[in-house]
Amino acid sequence: MSTYVYLNGDWIAPEHAKVSVFDRGFLFADGIYEVVPVYQGRPFLAEHHLARLDRSLAALAIPNHGDPFWYGLIEQLLARNAISDGLIYFQVTRGAETQRSHLPLGTLTPTVFASVSPLAVHWGVPTPAKVTLCEDIRWLRCDIKSISLLGNIMLKQHAQAQGAMEPLLFRGDHITEGASSNYFAVKDGALYTAPTDHLILPGITRMWVIELARQLGLPVYEQPFRVSELTQLDELFLTSSSREVQPIGQIDDIMIGQGQCGKITEQLVQAFHESKRKHCSS
Question: Pfam families attached here (predicted)?
């Protein structure tokens, strides 16, 4: 938990951070967020996270403070909270008015919030997890990292009730992503993952794993795999900034790779760890 958080130019204790009840983030979820992992005091793939933040802000026509501002916030968050390994959280809403109106009544000053939480960095191969298949009930602009996450929360609650780590979402017969992750299927030595369109959030860890896979000479196809193909997969794993590369051994009652971490997934786990080591030592 942060000792200090940033809110609209002030550094304050979390319990003292307050926003107006007329803030459009509070009333309408009119805002975006971004999460940046930090290893050994250094933000990992930060330029890609900040580019995604810029794309999300632009989609909502909310002004961006610019990369130097965000890098400065990262530096101060780590220093003020004495955290070396952590997850930086940024949130920007359109701002506050003095009454509730669906459309802004004038030019608003965005509300900017930032915090950091400790991250337990691991270096081993995670135990394969269970996921549960769910229809993707979310809106049709999943490429925007919106703070409107009610659909994601409902899906995560359902997954938890099924004893699963994460939902595996589908639209029609196509797998899209998770509630806070991207999925990769492995079949006959090749990787398959949903394309970066409006139906998924383009994960930064997803992007990096594709790059690592290609460095290893593994074929990668950015095309959706099907619900009807799940029983035929050799391996399945998910990616996210907090979980990195997480093997999946079970989808409801379907066992993947006899519930064990597959060889290609393990290769990518190790490649990801090696990229962290290089990042920390460079």
Answer: Aminotran_4 (PF01063)
The predicted-structure confidence for 14-34, as pLDDT tens digits, reads as follows: 999 999 999 999 999 999 999
Which two three-digit tokens encode residue 91? 């949130």
Please report the DSSP string for 218-246 in residue order: --EE-S--BGGGGGG-SEEEEEETTTEEE
The identity of residue 200, as a single letter, is I
What is d(CA 37, CA 122) in angstroms, rounded to the nearest whole number? 13
Among candidate residues 90, 118, 146, the one where a domain is terminated: 118
Beta strand 31-39 pairing with 42-43: antiparallel
* Same structural domain, 133 and 271: yes
Q: Are residues 79 and 170 in the same domain?
A: no
> Mean pLDDT throughout 245-266?
97
Q: Known catalytic residues?
A: 145
Contacts of 165 (CB under 8 A, 6+ apart): 129, 130, 131, 159, 246
Backbone angles phi, psi at 64, to 5 degrees: -105, 140
Identify any residues that bridge with 263 across adjacent strands, giving them in sequence order: none
165 within domain boundaries:
yes
Distance, in Å, from the CA atom of 166 to the CA atom of 242, rounded to the nearest integer, reads 13
Tell me the C-alpha distance between 275 and 279, whole Å: 6
